[in-house]
Amino acid sequence: MSDANGGRIGSSKFFGGQNYNKLRKDCEKKKALFVDTVFPPSNYSLFLEEGRHTDIEWKRPAEIADDPHLFVEGASPNDVTQGILGNCWFVSACSALTHNQKLLEKVIPLPDDQEWSGKRRYCGIFRFCFWRFGRWIEIVIDDLLPTRDGKLLFARSKTNNEFWSALLEKAFAKLYGCYENLVGGRLSDALQDVSGGVAETINTRKYMEKDAASASTTLFDHVKTSFDNGALIVAAIAARTKEEIEMSLDCGLVKGHAYAVTAVRFIELSKQKESIGAKIGAFFTGHHDREMLIRLQNPWGEKEWNGPWSDGSKEWELVSEAHKRELGITVDEDGEFWMPWNSFVEQFTDISLCQLFNTSHFSVSKRFHEDIHYGEWTTNGSKSGAPNDLAGGCLNFTATCCSNPQFLLEVTTPQNEMYFSLTQKEINEGLKRREPHISIGMHLMRVERNRKFRVHQPMEGAATSDYSNSRSVCLTVRDLAPGRYILMPTTFAPREQTTFLLRGYGDFHFKLTPLTKHAPRSGILSCNSSPPSVTRLQIRKAEYHRRPNDSLDNGLKFYCIIKSEKEKCQTSVQGGSMTPEWNDLFLFHRKDRRQQYFIELWHERFGPDVLIARAELVALMDNECKEVDLPLVPPKSKSTSESVGTISIQMCAYDDPYYI
């Protein structure tokens, strides 16, 4: 369960055991300013190695500026300016955060209560919240900030007496162990830390390779919809070498640098300035020319795009003055600029996007259902590939890849949208020395329509995420065919062990059901043993010959029902011809070596469905796969000589229930 901002509902964790309310009351009682002993104002909090000699002085805001405030006239993207620290990934995330007021209030709780001019006594203590591994962590800091010559060294606001960004950066440095650890982080990590959302990184080059004709527009629609729904978005131009980091390009952009996305818009062009052809087209269609634009913020507060649609460019002459005022167009060198979407996807290589899903029952906007699970990759002290081994690695390791946690998913609607987020736990949270992340990913495979137990061999793949040694990876799927699937979160290599958080979001009701059993038990007296065999049937297709007295309507929709012992299963409904194709799979665990199955062909129609033919299959447990064409006979016929068609089936029967 989650709140509207994507975080898991539950009590906040107090980082380092520090409770803001208790510490503040203690300061008020002693009439003293708070000094943090966990993250002290010293080299310990600045560097990985404490022995450095520096001329850095730690000062409180009142020693830096007159009339200090947490916020001055609210928060906006260009409030935040990067200092000498190479942490544009975090500063850009802060700029993006100002786009979502509710989220900002989650990260900086009760800001009025923390203001210098608030009702409560100023005690030099502040609190911030960051999302980690499914819950929000409260971090307490003092307001002693690193300065040189009386000026802030690191993140700051353009307004001299506004300090929310500098204090937020200090809390973030405390979470990461020291300020030095903020140099060169991942955009997606920072976005997730301040939102609790589902972070994904889109490689624009790979995305544009899908379908060059439509990919650009499709990506624009995805980014615009996400932004309009409150997503935090940051973009970057990858640097291929160390020398290219922060290299300025002729177009005004900077390589190896992160930019916050502050708007994604269609810009309407002025009717008076359209071409004659465009005006004629608009007369018939009702639509005037418009341009896909994106607005970005450079955390340096300078160095802007100088191409089409940049500040003061001739393209803005195509936009009415009223529309310019609505968009807040300025020609200031403030680091914020517009650029055309097509130029954006040509220049920028990566888009880090943190989705926030509305899971509220009481909302007019699109609602997503959510399911959350904590799990673990562990060998359980067993050999690789053993039944209780849950660290089998990715699909590259075919012998062990199914030895991973598995989650069963039932898709019930053909038009669907799903997002899966896999997050590994930070091993050394808050410590200076940080362990590298394990490479992780997810694989989604389609399985038998009646599967209830773990899969032991990879099946038809539906989707696979990228594998990355990042904290989180995301898998997005759309329009999955109805049926059953298994989602496997995996490490890339076998026998790597850690805990994980798996979150699923879908626009239909669903559940991710953990699969722990390998097969059903064979009986009460042998409770630890499994049935001696497993059979997989694939109902492929049927060929039905219409009879004179058939009551088939024009819909021609068919499905099959498979009966065996007390079990009954149904295929999907297919139609349009007298030769329907299903290719649906079913799994049966049986004790007997000789198994009998009855297959019924039904006609779906308005009113009661009609049984029109049947077939009988006898399967032997011979550890082979066979293709058979069975005769279809009328429901009441006792002889196969009255055949009205055939049904094609593949059957595979094995004496090892762990084989498939």
From TrEMBL:
The active site is at residues 88, 257, 298. CDD domains: CysPc (cd00044). Keywords: Hydrolase, Protease, Thiol protease. GO terms for cellular component: cytoplasm. Transmembrane segments: none annotated. Residues 33-357 form the Calpain catalytic domain. InterPro entries: C2_dom, C2_domain_sf, Calpain_cysteine_protease, Calpain_domain_III, Calpain_III, Calpain_III_sf, Papain-like_cys_pep_sf, Pept_cys_AS. Pfam families: C2, Calpain_III, Peptidase_C2. GO terms for molecular function: calcium-dependent cysteine-type endopeptidase activity. Gene3D superfamilies: 2.60.120.380, C2 domain, Cysteine proteinases. GO terms for biological process: proteolysis. Belongs to the peptidase C2 family. This is Calpain catalytic domain-containing protein.
